[in-house]
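User: I would dearly like some help making sense of a protein record. This is the protein in question:
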Amino acid sequence: MTHFGTNIKVNVSPSLRENTQRFYTQGLSATCTSPNEQLDLFAFAKGETLGVFYNDQALTEDEMRRAPWLEFAVSDPDAVASTLLTLGGTAVKGLTNHPYIAAPGGLVFRLSPNGH
């Protein structure tokens, strides 16, 4: 059986580091460690890790809208979406009734009730 691993990588502009840290730690309850000045590792409840590399080669937010989108399973998608919007997220029109949010830097993801 094949399945996705638990590690994801994305490039983000260095100017968005503080906003990115707040977004994932305060909005999605991730734990952040910074092994070096160009990398934050955001760890989530079930062991998944989002590695955010800060560099000038990051795609623009418009380009990120055409990149693969992710999904976060949360207990209350609308409440989490509201929090993320106050932390610098942007609402994105998706294909379903779930909230879709773009993080600082443009990574788009769907919020679904516990992955459904």
Summary: The chain has a mean pLDDT of 94. The longest helix spans residues 17-28. The beta strands are 7-12, 31-36, 39-43, 49-54, 70-74, 90-91, 100-102, 108-113.
